[in-house]
Amino acid sequence: MTSFKDFLEFLKLPPNILAAISIVTGTITLIPDHYAKRIYMYNFRNDYGFIISILFLVSTTILIILLFTYIFKYINNVITNRKIQKRKYKYLINADKNKVSLIKEFIKDSTHTLTLPMNDGLIIELQHFGIITMAGSTQLVDIEFDNSVYVKYFLQPWVITFINKYDELKDKYMK
Predict the structure, then answer these.
(1) What percent of the chain clears pLDDT 70, i.e. is strictly above it?
(2) Could you tell me the pTM of the whole model?
(3) CA dist 109 to 103, 112, 135, 153, 166, Å?
(4) Residue ranges of the domains in the chain?
(5) Looking at the DSSP assignment, which residues form a beta bridge with residue 143?
(6) CA triplet 45, 49, 52: central angle to 5 degrees?
């Protein structure tokens, strides 16, 4: 049972240590005999070659699996980010007049911050899609005569970047 626990601990080693183990065991296993005799590894390799070879194969296999995992995660992140960028663009280009006029008001303000009613459906939708965000978790709240709660919201920086990046969005939001 102890050997199985030791094997599991071996699998948890960091990739740089696994790479070192793979290189050393691979070198010991694969060097020609005359080089092994020169560095006094010939007898050691003959006595423990089977164990060294298994260690080499296991560590190399784990490194290859880790490499494929990193590549898959990177590709998945790139694809996900592209989908998110397309959805953001699609949301901004298909926004109705009310959303466009509100975003224009945010852009006109020097701090891109406006005091707006908290319970308005348009505000809640823009907040849900990450277009605007409350200007802080704690802030003074204005309660008007109509019992509406007013708080400060700011326009997310990515919205301004998107609008400046695409000509279609510039035409829609900067006029």
Answers:
(1) 94
(2) 0.67
(3) 10, 5, 14, 12, 21
(4) 2-87, 95-173
(5) 149
(6) 105
